Amino acid sequence: MATSEKNDAPIDSAKQEELLEKFDKSSALRTFTDIKVRYFVFVLAIVYSLFHLYITYNPMPELLQRSAHVSIGLCLIFLLYPAGKNSSRSSTSWLDWLLFLGSAASMSYLFVEYQNIMTTRGGIPNSTDIFFSMITVLLVFESARRIMGWGLPLLALIFLAYPFISSFEFMPDRLLTRPFDLGDIFGQMYLKTEGVFSSAIGASVTFIFLFILFGAFLAKSGMGQLFNDLALALAGHKQGGPAKVAVISSGFMGSINGTAVANVVGTGAFTIPLMKKVGYDKNFAGAVEASASVGGQILPPIMGASAFIMAETTGVSYGTIALAAVLPALLYYLGVIAQVHFRAGRDNLKGIPKESLPIVKDVLKERGHLLLPIIGLVVLLFNNIPVSYAAFYTIILTIIVSSLRKSTRMSIRDVFDALADGARQSLAVMSACALVGIIIGVVSLTSFGSVLTSAIMSVGAGSLFLTLFFTMLASMLLGMGLPSIPAYIITATMAAPALANFDIPILVAHMFVFYFGLFANITPPVALASFAGAGIAGGDPMKTGFQSLKLALAGFIVPFMFVYNPAMLMLETTDALISSKEFPLPSLWVIFSVTVTAIIGIIALSAAVEGYFKSHLNPLMRIILAAGAFMLIVPETLTDVLGVAIVGLVAFWNIMQSNKQQVHKA
Description:
Layout: H1 13-23, H2 35-57, H3 62-80, H4 94-120, H5 127-148, H6 151-165, H7 182-190, H8 199-221, H9 223-235, H10 241-257, H11 260-278, H12 282-295, H13 306-314, H14 318-347, H15 360-367, H16 372-382, H17 387-402, H18 412-446, H19 448-460, H20 464-478, H21 484-494, H22 497-500, H23 506-518, H24 528-537, H25 541-551, H26 553-564, H27 588-610, H28 619-633, H29 637-665
Helix pairs in contact: 1-11, 1-24, 2-3, 2-8, 2-18, 3-4, 3-8, 3-18, 4-5, 5-6, 5-7, 5-18, 6-18, 7-18, 8-13, 8-17, 8-18, 9-10, 9-15, 10-11, 10-12, 10-14, 11-12, 11-24, 12-14, 12-24, 12-25, 13-21, 14-26, 14-27, 16-17, 18-21, 19-20, 20-23, 21-23, 23-26, 24-25, 27-28, 27-29, 28-29
């Protein structure tokens, strides 16, 4: 495929910013011309970060801690984000300052009245409580609209409307509830830890913020450059090398930053032009970056901080979750890399000349020490150090380790910038978690969750497969256009309980909905990560979205595999352990057999999808190979034996065909 040199050049920073703002509203920040306002916001962001570091060792009462987290975050949002397209991008309006004051008042009122609310009134709201609750809910809605668009606010608005009308006669019997008054609804939202200040915000304040801050410090130290250079050194010279570089570097970065669109734009600005330069189709190049970036959030050890939310939600230890996530994540990336490899073979796409690439030894010598904080984090977490403490220690470790070499050393200004950047990057997640809290509050107040569970079960008609299928659809619908963390929290609250009726272990159920809530980011029609990749590559957004789906095919199959065979998650599940929070490891033979058959199955499926193994596959061979791949995916001994036989025969036949072609050419 011929491309102009201009189109193959790396994307400059201005273009990156433009694309980020187009596909990720949380990147559309103001740039203040008034230096006083600029420094005020900068200092407030630093204070916000320091507050979270302080409460790690000096926690406050839950309600106050969560209120401060939300209110200061809201203050920053109303100063940093314009109200609309026609609003000033360089100054704040009187309305922004009014909303800023309202956000500060929301926190101040709870701090002043906390003892009266908890003791004198026993959590029963008076008229002033209800007023401040309504103000806070409105501020949360407006902040979310500014920072992430209308999708999640509209969903939350529908949920908030439900308790107002749930006792009306026109409601279906299944949705009928007792009447709720303003005190019931808004007391739930503001005075308890089940509404705006729910467990979602609890997770945000306790450790999500700290891991976002950790990522900001890693970025300042040059971690992104390390991942790019290391991926280039390892895979750049291979067949279709630039695409493999994109998969490896985006996977590493995605695990840390947990933001699919930002990851697509950040790493894709470098990798997509390289892919186009060696001959990859522009839609395919954008799709590779999108599927790799989204997959980073299922990749241990950090999983975009979702592993820690899952631990908090399920009560399963972080170590168990991280171990369980390893094989499915590697299978996902194997599927992407295999398709990239076979596409390169099919189209005869070469890698980058080895002499123009960095050397692994040199890369590790210059920046390899930056891996130490990540290694330290894993060691701390597997030694059962509390998550918030581990995050705090690794932030300090990052500053110390970065100083070992001049090229990565952080100045005082870099430290302050990292503190401010971390605060700004946390705002989208904070706002989404606060809005998700409203949904959680309504579900808790009205028992709507059990209604949805019952509906999924009814549609599933008692069939595990059908229930899994409809749970998958519900998870993808609920996750559309959302960051991974709020997407998981919503799907865990709304969809995961439907699987409990089939005695599926809690970790398996949560991992299942997490996968599909996440893949909504590359699933048309709302495939923000794919659209961002198309924007960089100059491709068609919908075509890029469907290419992303094809590349991520393993990610849609693997969750069904581990539901039917939890050994893939390194879980030994017996009837006695279905409701347990700790699981012993299966035998080594079980792990080995599951791993080998899954790997062969994923590679075979990738070859069938691309129509190439060692040489081109005709349509009949592709169908036979796909059938063999699916047999390997089904966790039965007979299907495994048949699958290995079919895949082996097709592979042997294709290799012989390839050898004949080589002889013919010679």
